[in-house]
Amino acid sequence: KKKKKKKKEKEEEDELEAALRDIGIEAPNARVPDDEEEKEKEEKNRKSRKRWDELFACDVRKLKAEDELRRMFMSPSSNAVGGEFSGSSSGSGIFARPKSGWSNKSRAIGLAMKKTKNLEEKFRGDFAYEEDVGGDGEVSYYQFSTGAAYEDANELFEKARETHDPRAITHLLMKYPLHAESLLAISDVHMVVGDADKGSDAIEQCLAAFEKSFHKDFIADVKKGTARIPIDPPGKAFIDEDKDEDESIFDVIDELSDRREKLEEAIEMWDRSREKTFLKALFKQTCSLTRRGCYNAALEVSKMLFSVEPKDYFCVGFIIDYAAIRSEKLEWLEEFLASLLERRVSPFDMWYRPNFSYSYAICLKLRDEQSKIKSNKADEAMRQAIMQHPLALYFLVEKLDLKTRDVEWFEIIERSSYFEKTTTSNNASYEFACKLFAERHHYLWRPERILSWMKAIARSVCEEYERMNIILNRPTSSEEWKHEEEERDKIYAELNSVTWQMTRNANLEVKEGRNVASMFSHVSFEDYQDVVKRQLPEDDENPFLAPAPQQRNRNENNRHAAMDDMNNRLNNMNNNLALIADAAERFAARDNNVEWRENGIPEEELRNIAETHGRGNDPGAIGMMRAFFATLFRGDENNGDFQNDRLRDALQRQQQHQ
Q1: Residue 434: helix, strand or coil by DSSP?
Q2: Which of 21, 289, 387, 633 has the fewest CB atoms inside 10 Å of its own CB, making it the most exposed?
């Protein structure tokens, strides 16, 4: 298969060279860079990596929610006099101060963190950690390890979760008060029923349990932005797009079966990963801090999570820019987004982060307002964001209910050909990402001055799109088409509403066999909302107590099978009732028919009865029906092994009652 792929790539290269020769261009030869250029490039990359790490250097003194709340609501004089809140007190954790009822154990039983300077072999092909390999050695990698005691607690946790009773988890916490998975599960229970305070408290306890097991160098590396916690979440199974044409369906089925087994094994390992629990707790803490208005603390936790897990598996990227704007860290955000948007590659697909483009534009706009200097950078960034992600603007306008409040927005979104042709997407993951942006960031776009600025640029993009389409769609025989060749070439050469549409279609095209809807299948939309549900809906199950996906599928299949069996039984019962009613009627008719009473029911009548009640005219069923009626009307001597005495007696009793 690899040989066929290489052959296919070689043929594509030959076709490209032939096409270039046809238009008079020779394919450029690859030039081998000299040692000086290699050293210069390596030095540039090293400085870039170092600056990237510095951007995510976390100030661990600002991670506590209570400290930020006191800074917001207490006067500077009372804060200075108290002295208690000016810094970290002795015995205080980095995420929260211990509260009454928390465990005072020095560390979680059986949970520890180990450090290594070398990346494991299984992560070396991952781009998220590729830039760290071969660097100056400043990056350190950390992993959690568990002992027998913690594994015992985890087995009890799995059994408690299978009971679907939160009280079983609380009983487990009485014996293992620092079991991280149980604490995180209890936080979900409190959040689901609307008790956000207790939910946040359980998250902080979970992080405190992990903090007790931190390696002595972990916090120091987090402060420098050089700590990494490599993860390997399970991938998605799909049919290989480059499969051989001669490959049979049986080969494909075998391949999918193997991939399914490997995927189930990877899912089980991922679910038992302590790294997943810790990173998920950090993400939950970020969401909790954002809801409470602690945007400085939320930004620092986001930076910590973004630094230790560059893949952004838990999608904290949808929050980090929002927290930076709300905490007025505009200079940091501009440098972060500029460096991210200018990078040619990223650990995650930038197409599925539309919030970065819009946040970059509003960040430049707010900085211009602060400096009172008018520049075109913000306008151009806003134009690029709308052209690149028009679907995100569509959902933002819907979230803010602008179409019903402003007729100009209605004309732009509903009547313009640009939004009519660019806001339909069959890529569920991209659509979900645009909805997340609108849900999390809509508050930033509510001011009237921001909406007026965005509306003017959106209108200009629509006008530009219509003008360009007129030029590109002119008949080739018209005079204008001959004089607009340079302008057409310019349209295709530059980034504009037309070329962005072509690029977007190429990048977001749904690949055959790939389940694009599963990119954010692990993300909960409610985590990005400021409003917590006040009560548990009647038909909504506790999220952490829900069965695993495989078990859930098995339960669903069993439920469908049980329903089908019940329907079949009901159908059989109805058929039997109809058969008995027919038999009773014909049995009564026999007494009035001398020929039937003497010679038995005719063969032709027996066949009619059997075909009437035979299930789907199945020959076996028809035969059984004929045997049944023959026995019923002629006696057991015709079919001695067919026992029907009780039925015949029942029919006779029914006739007597009538």
Answers
A1: helix
A2: 21
